[in-house]
Amino acid sequence: QVQLVESRGGLVQPGGSLRLSCAASGFTFSSYAMRWYRQAPGNERELVAVISSAGGSTNYADSVKGRFTISRDNAQNRVYLQMNSLKPDDTAVYYCNTVILSKNYWGQGTQVTISS
User: Which run of H or of E encompasses 34?
Assistant: First the structure.
């Protein structure tokens, strides 16, 4: 079955950096685009970044452009989110996602808190 498992997030000071990873299994990873979403308390889940199946194309939410980088390693079945210049507004639960045959699959989510 499809499984997506995010790495542990954490508490980071404003201006700091953090890299999230997501380990995928149960499907042909290299055939599917991958996404990172986040959801802050009281807010809807929002798309943060997406990367194409081969990794040649990426897109970002305006709020993270220039600060976050999505990447993938198809040999290791992993997708990453490098987050730099973190702000308190980046505090959220971050989710790894893929869509297969119109069905959404989600990881369990990982908490990222930006605070001094």
Answer: strand 34-39
Distances, alpha carbon 38 to alpha carbons 23, 31, 56, 76, 114, in Å:
17, 23, 23, 23, 14
Q: How confident is the model at residue 107 (pLDDT cuts 50, 70, 90)?
A: very high
pLDDT in tens, 44-98: 999 999 999 999 999 999 999 999 999 999 999 999 999 999 999 999 999 999 9
Would you call 98 exposed, middle or buried from its count of C-beta atoms within 10 A (0-12, 13-18, 19+)? buried
For residues 30-45, average pLDDT: 97
Cα–Cα nearest to 69, from 104, 77, 61, 3: 61
Q: Considering only CA atoms, which of 93, 99, 72, 80 is closest in space to residue 2?
A: 99
Answer whether 106's CB lies under 8 Å from 52's CB: no
